[in-house]
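subagent[fold] <- orchestrator: predict structure for attached chain, return tokens only, no commentary.
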Amino acid sequence: MGLISAILGNAGAVSQEELFRKFGKLLTDREEIELGFRLFRYTFIFTTKESSS
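subagent[fold] -> orchestrator:
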């Protein structure tokens, strides 16, 4: 993901506030969004969700 791709809107980081507005309803009670990236029309989100044993 280079600078030119981010400027053209093809790739780039997404703010936590925007991610929470769009995807907050999908999170569990103790889950928080750490970071997210957008690549074309796809959004990748990394959260604090841990699997239970």
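orchestrator: received. Logging for downstream: The chain has a mean pLDDT of 81. The first helix runs from residue 3 to 8.
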